[in-house]
Structures are given as structure tokens and as C-alpha cells.
Amino acid sequence: MHRALGDPSRVRILEALRASESPLDARALAEALGLHPNTVRGHLKVLAQVELVEAIEEGAARRGRPRTLYRPASRQAGDEEDAAYRLLARILASSVLASTPEPARCAERAGEAWGRYLVERPAPFALLSTEEALDRVMGLHEKFGFRPELGQGERAAQILLRGCPLSEVARAYESVVCPAHLGLIKGALAELGAGVEADRLEPFAAPDLCVAHLKIGCS
Length: 219
Fold this sequence. Notes:
Blueprint: H1 8-19, H2 26-33, H3 37-49, E1 53-57, E2 68-72, H4 79-99, H5 103-118, H6 130-143, E3 147-152, E4 156-162, H7 167-172, H8 174-192, E5 196-206, E6 209-216
Antiparallel strand pairs: 1-2, 3-4, 4-6, 5-6
Helix pairs in contact: 1-3, 2-3, 4-5, 5-8
């Protein structure tokens, strides 16, 4: 499912279907999104395979071959598993919040440890460039369902993070979940050792956007 949503066009198609009051066919979606109908059909096939959309045949009232219409799946694939993980995240976040006087720092330290563990490490004695390090951190986020984009400056960089898989929990326990995420980025960058550091994380800069602010050229 994460791979299916890794393509921005498929995300746009799914969002268009969710916003529509009625099912749409590939041609209508293509016209609305500025894509070729065959491209849309290919994306719809992928979304249907992971049960994010479902196809229905138009009724027989129209003459000729009935159209295939698409709508968001009434029951999303993995709903029960995702709900279980969100519940576990809530339990752990609330426990950290209640059991330590510095929950944000505790969560950040845990995130750092996991960031070092999860990121794809370089080979012994290999030196990564800034671009390579950022690419690995972006890949780490993609692996867990984010849709990251890089915003680059002369001495600073931003990772624009959309599609947070734990946004619901993060909104309820921002003081724990978001520091853990910042720690994850800090730990991953420290492990890669390419002179890039995570400065801060800006939660919910937009409804579906968090921004990680980075420093480049750190000793």
C-alpha cells in the first residue's frame, strides 16, 4: 500500500475520488487531473490491487458498452491492522507523557536510537555526500508511508513530510510523537555522518504537512 501511494499521481487520483459525490471513470479523472486516460487506468489498477479503490460497472441505462466507474473502497485494506498500531501508539505515547517529567526529551532520545538503527548505514570507511545522506533519510520515511520532498537552500535544507501514517495520534500527543520523529531524523543523520543535522521539526505546518528543518555543513 505504501508503494502504491508513493506515486503523487495515484495520491491525486485517490483524493479526487474521495472528494467526488459519485463514482468517476478513467476519462473523467484524466480530464480533471490533466493526465492521459491510459495513465489513469494504470494507476487505478494499482490502487484497486491494494484495495484502495473499487471498480463498479455502470448500469444498463446507457447504450453501448457500460463504463467502468471507480470509487474509494468502502473498507480499506489493512484497516484493522492500522487501527491496532494507532491504539498501541496512543497507549505508549500517553504512558510516556504520564511517567516522566521530560516526556519530549525521553521521546526524542528513543527516536534517536531507532533512527541510528533503522537508517541504511554506509559501508565501513565510506563517506557519504550530503545528497546521499538526505536521500537515505528520505527513503527511510518512504518506507514507513510518508511522502517526503526535499527543499534545498544554501546552508539549510527542509524535508517536507506529507502523508504521516500517525497523524491522528500525533495531533493528540504532539508533545511525544513529534519529538520522537525529530529524534528519528537526528539519529539517522548522525549515523550517516555527512555533516547534516536536524535542527527542528515543525508539526502540521499545513493540514497534511510537517517540515523538518536541517542544517548543512555541520562539523
